[in-house]
Design a protein that fits this description.
By secondary structure, this protein is an alpha/beta fold. The protein has helices at residues 11-25, 122-130, 133-137, 154-157, 165-180, 210-224, 228-241, 253-262, 289-300, 317-333, 354-361, 408-412, 421-437, 454-467; strands at residues 2-6, 30-34, 38-42, 50-53, 77-80, 94-97, 109-112, 115-118, 192-199, 268-271, 304-309, 342-345, 366-367, 386-390, 395-401, 406-407, 441-445. The protein starts with a strand and ends with a helix. The model has no long low-confidence stretch (mean pLDDT 95).
Length: 468
């Protein structure tokens, strides 16, 4: 048991940061007490060694809270951790300091008879990254879909988006604990890969009327300059009209479940509950007999049925509630019973802290939206699931965030990262290896409709073989 002293200011925020970092991430129970700064001692040894850290982030004056003046000063200082012998399990010994002392001016680790001083504000930095504090401050930084872009984030601008920076901070903190209290045992975590699949288009031919099928065939002809692709599309359309949905191009659900089961994984399929309108709509109905049977089949095979909020549900709490209720209703009628429900926003449309609050209000257990469309990586700085926090209401939510690390279209599509199949595979393998390094969760998104081309299927099989 640890004793954590912290100042009186920002107590809900400080207590949240301490509980997530110490108790949930590291498995170390603690008693909070009021004190002049961050100071950790062992219970029962008040005069024993202590760990002290700078109180950089939460020393922000109240007038500057959630204002640009509270953001980290750039460029960030970089700490050469190897010189202090504080951690060996880092992505790089050159560690960016989000909040803390400047290693150019003073030693980041100072040892004395009283204990150890660590010049890294681990708890304040964790709060900043986990709550997406900077996205609340930078509300003007949005793309055409009202999303906060990777290019506006501190992690991208400072070159550490591909590093789970808070996991690295935890390693440094763990090293300090072990030095002070050699018998202390932190929580050991087991790496897990989590394949997820947003069901934007469950069927390509099976739900298309004749005009849409013909229009698709024309697009195929113009794109490929060959009669084979449009002929194949029309023949599949005819087969689905006869009830053979296995002929549908996008009907890859059994393939996805087969692949997950082959590698001992459990897939999550996120369904849109209400038809939308507009160019970014997912226009299908859960009440379609084939979709209903699909929900039941996924559940019977031991995989997860989840929620995919529509494009229009973003920023609309009432629509979010009605869509989730509809999913629960149809799923229950098909025998789908789950202890908790989670999912993801369509198009990764998410806003801090409003989307979290909307999901928490309707009783969802977790959200897994937090990655960037334009650049894969660690948007939250961590590869662990954690409880959400509303920085405006200043309270912890029941909802958890399960950070999404990578989305296939964001990696391969030319409008985003535009990587080649080999480059994209290397990027995915890199991100998975960094989750594995910290016993984290490699949550990735691969749509059922992104398995049309041979290279897409090969890429998915390769990903599972490498990350499982």
């Amino acid at each position: 048991m640890l004793i954590l002293q912290r100042p009186e200011s920002y107590q809900p925020e400080r207590d949240y940061a301490a509980e997530v970092v110490l108790q949930q991430f590291m498995g170390l129970p603690f008693h909070p007490r009021t004190g002049p700064a961050w100071r950790i001692t062992a219970a029962g040894s008040p005069d024993g060694p202590a760990l002290e850290m700078p109180d950089s982030f939460f020393s922000i004056p109240g007038k500057d809270w959630l204002q640009p003046a509270s953001l980290p000063q750039r460029p960030l200082a970089v700490w050469e951790v190897g010189e202090s012998h504080m951690a060996s399990r880092l992505v790089s010994p050159r560690l960016p300091v989000i909040f803390g002392d400047n290693p150019e001016h003073e030693a980041m680790v100072r040892r004395s008879d009283a204990g150890l001083y660590l010049g890294l504000d681990v708890l304040g930095s964790a709060f900043f990254m986990l709550t997406r504090y900077e996205e609340v401050v930078n509300r003007g930084e949005r793309d055409s879909h009202a999303r906060f872009p990777a290019s506006a984030s501190l992690a991208f601008q400072e070159g550490f988006l591909d590093r789970p920076i808070i996991n690295e901070y935890l390693e440094v903190l763990k090293a300090a604990f072990v030095e002070l209290w050699p018998g202390l045992r932190c929580r050991e975590r087991q790496y897990v890969a989590r394949p997820t699949h947003d069901v934007d288009d469950p069927l390509r031919e099976g739900l298309a009327g004749f005009p849409r099928a013909v229009a698709g065939a024309v697009r195929d002809l113009l794109k490929h300059r060959s009669i084979a692709p449009p002929r194949q599309r029309l023949s599949r359309w005819i087969a689905t009209r006869g009830g053979d949905m296995s002929a549908d191009t996008y009907n890859t659900f059994d393939y996805l479940m087969d692949q997950s089961e082959k590698h001992g994984l459990r897939s999550a399929f996120y369904f849109v509950a209400e038809s939308d309108s507009g160019p970014y709509a997912c226009s299908y109905s859960l009440n379609h007999p084939w979709i209903r049977r699909l929900l039941g089949r996924i559940h019977k095979r031991g995989h997860e049925v989840g929620f995919h909020a529509s494009y229009s549900a973003f920023g609309d709490s009432a629509r979010t509630a009605s869509e989730f209720a509809e999913l629960r209703r149809v799923a229950a009628e098909e025998g789908v019973e789950q202890q908790s429900w989670g999912g993801r926003q369509h198009y990764l449309r998410w806003s801090a802290p409003d989307t979290w609050q909307d999901w928490d209000d309707v009783g969802l257990g977790y959200d897994s939206t937090l990655s960037y469309t334009d650049c894969a990586g660690f948007r939250c700085g961590v590869c662990y699931e954690y409880p959400a926090f509303n920085v405006l209401a200043r309270e912890r939510l029941s909802l958890c965030e399960r950070p999404l690390i990578a989305m296939e279209s964001g990696i391969f599509e030319p409008r985003y990262m535009g990587l080649s199949p080999d480059e994209g595979a290397a990027r995915l393998a890199l991100l998975a290896s960094r989750c594995r390094l910290y016993g984290g969760e490699f949550v990735f998104l691969w749509h059922n409709s992104y398995l049309v081309e041979a290279w897409q299927r090969a890429g998915y099989a390769r990903l599972l073989a490498e990350c499982a």
